[in-house]
UniProtKB/TrEMBL annotation:
PROSITE patterns on file: EF_HAND_2
Entry GO MF terms: calcium ion binding
InterPro entries membership: EF-hand-dom_pair, EF_hand_dom
Name this protein carries in UniProt: EF-hand domain-containing protein
Superkingdom of origin: Eukaryota
Domain EF-hand: residue ranges: 66-101
Organism listed in the record: Arachis hypogaea (Peanut)
Length: 163
């Protein structure tokens, strides 16, 4: 029973974090424009701010924001009162919908980097030990340090591909 409650609380906390982020971005764009609701131009600026934060704070390669056509399409779906503007509650649903693909991409990249890379490192450690000069160092390193080093190298390489 405790595990079920913890999972439900985790879902609740994630929703609250998303709500805090969307409120912050909504208020930032709204205050810059002096409007109560967001029109398309304001909404696209908000999308760019969200994707800027995603690219800045998540340990994955750069993710491009959706096109203006995609933003218009999702805006029409999320505009419940059909006024051509997005209010605070509609904005929360809009951000959840527009970033759903991004969450999948980020999850796959994180799994690749932080789950598969250490596994491959451990599988290839024996082969690496046979390389002259490098093999002595690899033999000396504990498995956890070797796997962590390879994982960080993979992550760094993914980040450098964008620079």
């Amino acid at each position: 029973m405790e595990q079920v409650l913890n999972k439900l609380q985790g879902i609740y906390l994630r929703k609250m974090q998303i709500k805090i982020i969307t409120d912050r971005i909504f208020d930032t764009v709204k205050n810059d424009r002096g409007r109560v609701n967001l029109k398309f131009e304001d909404l696209y600026i908000a999308v760019l701010l969200v994707y800027n934060d995603i690219n800045k704070f998540l340990p994955v390669t750069h993710i491009d924001p959706p096109s203006k056509a995609k933003v218009r399409e999702i805006m029409k779906e999320c505009d419940i009162n059909f006024d051509g503007e997005i209010d605070r509650n509609e904005f929360y649903d809009f951000i959840k919908q527009i970033t759903s693909d991004t969450v999948t991409i980020v999850s796959k990249r994180l799994i690749l980097t932080f789950a598969i890379a250490p596994t491959v490192a451990m599988l290839t450690k024996k082969i690496t030990e046979g390389i002259p000069h490098v093999g002595n160092i690899v033999r000396w390193l504990p498995n956890s340090v070797y796997a962590s080093t390879v994982t960080l190298a993979v992550w760094w390489h993914q980040k450098q591909k964008l620079s």
